[in-house]
Amino acid sequence: MSLDDDTSSASTLTLLDDYAFENDLLTIMSDTGPETNDQLKRRAKAVLLEMGSTLTSVHEVKTFNILDAMMEGAEKAGLSSGVRYAAAAIIVAYQKGKASNSSASELTKLARDWLLFFLWPSVAHDRTVKKAYRAANSPQSEISTPSLRASEVVADTVPATSRSSQFRDSISERDGNKCVVTGILNINKGPYPPGTEGSEGVLHAAHILRRSIVQEHSRNNCIAGTIDIIKHYTKLHEDIIDDLASIIDNPENGILLDPTWHGEFDRYMWCLHPTDASHKYTVHWLRRVPLGKEAFTEVQFQDHSQSGIPLPNPTFIMLHSAVAHVLHLSGAAEVIDKVYDAFSDEGSATIVDWVDDEQTSVTNEPASVRETIHILNGLLIF
Q1: DSSP string of 14-62?
Q2: Which pLDDT score is estimated for 190?
Q3: Going by C-beta distance under 8 Å and a sequence separation of 6 or more, which residues neighbour residue 204?
Q4: Which of 6, 200, 202, 372 is 20 to 30 A removed from 19 (C-alpha atoms)?
Q5: Residue 366, Cα to own-chain centre: how many angstroms?
Q6: Which pTM does this prediction carry?
Q7: How many of the other CB atoms lie within 10 Å of CB of 42?
Q8: Which residues of the chain have pLDDT under 70?
Q9: Which residues contact 297 (CB under 8 A, 6 or more apart)?
Q10: Residue 71 has what pLDDT?
């Protein structure tokens, strides 16, 4: 049975939850370990080159690409802890299977864990997931699949009060009531004094880390797996990791954005790269820069409030950037987009495809819907 067909263990980590594996991983990852990040990365790259032809795919994404992208994405984002974690995990997975000639299988399990418990939760919208479940389990659907359990729809455990206007107001006040990229003024905070420069528009308080990473599922411990990967990949302080469900709606996880920039940020079309200056970043696109956005190249965060509202957490920004790079380097973005686009709020009948700077819609034929449901078997059965 292939991993793609194995639904019996789909609700749990397959390798990262192995006690012996984690022990060996933590030993190699230790800052006091003899190997530098570069040395570990070279060893991991050698493993991937050796095993390349024997590695298969996980839910239509090549195992090799996921593993390699987890290292490269962290490096591009400036997340050195992510490079060390990913390289060490690849080495340990390879060694674990070597005695039984099952290194390819162990590496595929590792890629599966990262895809289902790290990349997917970082991308998924709760409403999109719920629509996907309803579509997959609808009695009217000819492609209904019993392996998707309707009872396991995402249940947000963060209190409803966290969605209040306090988050939006705090972010807007801290960021000077302006989009941090374009400088557009928040029309909801006007009128502004005569002579104020800039145009006005509706602005969004955008989450850097998506709320979906702290959403529970009714019959499993998915969130624990996701948080554990984030902990090792980022080396965030234990206090932050332990309270991430509350912090997700704090100002340190928010930035004020124009709606179009917000949508593209959520879709990981662009991210922020750190500079040598404190809280200053460059705008990095993962696709061709859209027309009219070439001039917006830098973001400088500063607190414009009188109450000391925290600035965006630099590690949160680096984690968002790393996810963006991993998604695009591995090809997982294309696979996950099939789910996102098929069941997004814009409707469940079209898949949106970006061609240069024009948005085109492709109507789903039964075969393409069936393909999407097949992907859902892997991504949503947690």
Answers
A1: SSTT-HHHHHHHHHHH-TTSSS-HHHHHHHHHHHHHHHGGG--EETTEE
A2: 86
A3: 256, 257, 258, 259, 262
A4: 6
A5: 29
A6: 0.81
A7: 13
A8: 1-13, 125-164, 216-222, 339-382
A9: 282, 283
A10: 98
